[in-house]
């Protein structure tokens, strides 16, 4: 296995902006780092399942991708655009103990099944770097855990950014929300254009 190429691919793919990272940063900004931990762990759990499914269903997916990819791309991009609009037009409400229902473990885990960036990343990592060299159950589970761990680390990093700059972000909430919403919209459009 070309280890360096594999590591470069997964680090760049995991740490670049995407729905998981933007949402983790936004939730940490709104609710603090500690309250965002469950979202980050949900991302890892959901991505572990996606990576494992990609590992075991890779040959089947290769045959079905032309039909499935289009629908997943449309669904995922539409959801990302919906999130972008919600983020851009979010207004700070009076202090409330009620948290966003999207800042949950289960929501984050389920998001991985409609996250086109994550699914395409998992399919590419598994088909290009893992299956040609490793096919044992232990190896497939180990690599899936490694990819999931990296996704948790990535969302934690983005959460820390949102938490550390919370005071600054609060002072500039509207421009920040617009910028984050536009970046998320850009991610959605770039997926559709590919």
List keywords for this structure.
194 residues, mainly alpha, 0% strand
Characterise the protein shown here.
By secondary structure, the chain is mainly alpha-helical. α1 (3-15) packs antiparallel against α5 and α3 (37-88) packs across α5. The model has no long low-confidence stretch (mean pLDDT 80). Helices cover 80% and strands 0% of the residues. The chain has helices at 3-15, 19-31, 37-88, 105-111, 116-130, 137-164, 166-171, 173-193. The longest helix has 52 residues, at 37-88. The chain contains eight helices and no strands.
What's the β-strand tally?
0
C-alpha-based Rg, rounded: 17 Å
Spans of at least 5 consecutive residues with low confidence:
none
**Average pLDDT:** 80
Distance between the termini: 27 Å
Helix % is over 70%
Q: By helix and strand content, what is the structural category? A: mainly alpha
- Overall, the morphology is globular
Q: How many strands, what sense, and barrel or not for the largest sheet?
A: none
**Proportion of beta-strand residues:** under 5%
SSE string, helices as H and strands as E: HHHHHHHH
The DSSP helix count reads 8
């Amino acid at each position: 296995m070309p280890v360096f190429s594999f590591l470069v691919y997964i680090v760049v793919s995991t740490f670049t902006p995407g729905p998981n990272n933007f949402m983790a940063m936004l939730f940490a900004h709104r609710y603090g780092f500690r309250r965002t931990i469950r979202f980050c762990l949900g991302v890892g759990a959901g991505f572990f399942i996606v990576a494992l499914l990609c590992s075991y269903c890779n040959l089947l997916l290769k045959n079905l991708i032309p039909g499935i990819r289009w629908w997943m791309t449309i669904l995922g991009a539409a959801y990302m655009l919906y999130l972008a609009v919600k983020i851009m037009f979010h207004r700070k409400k009076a202090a409330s103990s009620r948290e966003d229902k999207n800042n949950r473990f289960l929501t984050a885990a389920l998001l991985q099944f409609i996250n086109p960036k994550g699914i395409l990343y998992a399919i590419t990592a598994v088909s290009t770097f893992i299956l040609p060299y490793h096919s044992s159950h232990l190896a497939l589970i180990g690599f899936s855990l490694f990819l999931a761990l990296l996704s948790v680390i990535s969302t934690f990093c983005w959460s820390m950014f949102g938490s550390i700059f919370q005071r600054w972000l609060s002072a500039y909430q509207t421009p920040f929300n617009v910028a984050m919403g536009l970046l998320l919209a850009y991610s959605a459009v770039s997926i559709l254009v590919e």
